[in-house]
Amino acid sequence: MKILLFVFSMFCSLAHSQQTAQNLFGQHRTALYQIKIIELESGNKSSIGSGFQIDKSGNVVTNYHVVSEYVYNPDKFRIEYLAHDGSQGQLQLVDVDVVNDLALVRKVELSAQESAFPIAQSLPLQGSDIYSLGNPHDLGMIVVPGTFNGLKKSSFYQRIHFTGSINPGMSGGPVVNKFGEVMGVNVATAGNQIGFLIPLEKIQELLKNQNAQVLKSEQFKPRIQQQLLANQNRLFSLLNNHSWETSELGKALVPSKITDFISCWGGSNTSDTEALYLSVENRCQLDEQIYLHHGLRTGGFEVEFEWLNGKSLGEHRFYNFYSQSITGAGAGNNATKTDVTNFRCQQDKVTNINGVTNKTVLCLRAYKEFDQLYDVLFVAATLDHTQQGLISHYTLSGVSKESALVFTQKFMDSISWQ
């Protein structure tokens, strides 16, 4: 009997969810759009996403990454919308929030009857049913029921953990509560019914500019740089003002926990019985990056420490091996030659406040579109032992020179001998 009651309750819950989804779609489909980026030369769409109208003035919210091609090349693309009834029109860019992957666009021409989604005042309780709307794989608008699992834990960039399917083409679509009020925006999926949403707070911040003038094309990238600089100032303020926990790595003490939102792992080659040297690693990184366009991501942060013991190699062979290890580091983010310059490097010999002496290499490459931003690559190798040593390495992307230099000092002074 208990089994029958459980099955019946599950059936009723599913039926209620389906009915709610149908009602929401019927009620709000006139304010839900496919967003298309049209390549001017061919006249065909280059990419698609979803978007939703938030007022009677024609303002529409979508993801920044949906419109990024237009932001980078406004002379080669235009933004259009396609409504549920087949009507379409052009959109203008009002504002972007590149850090949170949001964009506000506006209809060029309004119809006689404009409709809009209401915006929620607060997030629902954890475990509540929520509904993702969008246009997956260009198949037409759908509603995907799912579960609100709260904000993602230990994350620098706030995201809602959503149990439900978010597929390509649904990016920028609204996620609503049972009342049809928007409380999130589709942004990414990790597969296996794990989705991530931009939370209500970030949407509300974007909507403060819904009455703003349309941005001119020459304002796009300065607006993005302003946001990236403000974001990195917040990040490095947290990193530099936090006391880093340390742990043993060979004969050294190195950072093992920097902040709660920086994930750290360890590893070694002790299981390799044929290895001629011992390698033990601690690696930490920020799991999220900021999307600028398909060939460029920024906002990355990686830190790595490797203890090497090569007594079985002999002093000469270990020195050659150790020197080669210094040159093995690379950039931590995707970037193309059209976006960044080549790295320019400076070598030095530095003794930190704990008496640890390092040979250091500091490399910077400039962003061609953003005159205050750089990618930074730093490698240091200790010189205090003959057949043992510590290699310290970090990469930062999209930072100012000032932030990089302050962080380098903190990074170097975090190392000591046991």
TrEMBL record:
Signal peptide (UniProt feature, chain positions): 1-17
Entries under Pfam families matching the protein: Trypsin_2 (PF13365)
Record keywords: Signal
UniProt key word Signal: yes
A GO BP entry: proteolysis
Keyword Methyltransferase: no
MF terms in GO: serine-type endopeptidase activity
Protein name according to UniProt: Peptidase S1 and S6, chymotrypsin/Hap
